[in-house]
Amino acid sequence: MNDDQLNRYSRHLLLPQLDYDGQQRLLDSHVLILGLGGLGSSASLYLASSGIGTLTLCDFDRVEVSNLQRQVVHSENTIAQTKVSSAKQMLSGLNSTVSINTFDYPLSEQELSEQIMQADVVLDCTDNSVSRCLHNRLCLDFKTPLVSAAAIRFEGQLMVIDPKQADKPCYQCVYPESNNQEETCTSAGILAPVVGMMGVHQALEAIKLISGLGDDMTGKLISFDGLSSRWQQFNVPKRAACPVCGHN
Fold it and tell me: 13: which residues sit within 8 A by CB, 6+ positions away?
């Protein structure tokens, strides 16, 4: 780290659990963010500010005025721009030392596989279970840790999947079937801070995975209820009949 970086990340360096070595691991790391909506917005801001060395952003949508209620990486000035270009503009202004790659079109499975192989951690910030199941399967194939989250109305959920831990569950152990008919924020609504909190939690878990900080959260389903401000953790087992990671 140079003098500017030592100053920028000085509050991280004061944490004995993170210290110089942990921050250097963040600077050397590469995180892939799939989706720059409410989850990806908050996650990307904190990952960039924390000094993740390379961010790869994937989203094929454009910024709309209805996004601005919760997608805080975008602004009125970037309406009609692609979300990845809008996010890159904001993140580069926040931390110009972060290398940012963008994809503004739907990636083929081969292209997505290539990006997952290059990443240290993948954040699934998409809004449908079909995409989450695909990302889960590919991360398992290439042994890349995955932090998956979802939020709707006043509720959020998060899982950390680490394919290197063969005895721990994957996304489809908990959600066996993808559902094209599921509710979305567009149809059911979402309270803005709830999705922001889940995105920030994704950033936290990614930082923990990269730096080795804190408790291992694999094998747990984390749930948040915004109306009661209650967090809950549920231990979830690996499912032997899981079509992705099971033994049968």
Answer: 6, 19, 20, 23
Mean pLDDT of 109-125: 98
First CA to last CA distance, the chain = 48
Q: Given a cut of 60, is residue 135 above it in pLDDT?
A: yes
Active site residue 139: no
d(CA 193, CA 209): 24
Conformation bin of residue 214: beta by default, left when phi > 0, alpha when psi is -120 to 50? left
Residue ranges making up the domain that contains 176: 3-235
Is position 161 within any domain?
A: yes
Out of 139, 185, 242, 245, the active site residue is 185
Encode pLDDT of 28-40 as tens digits. Answer: 999 999 999 999 9
Q: What is the CATH number of the domain that holds 131?
A: 3.40.50.720
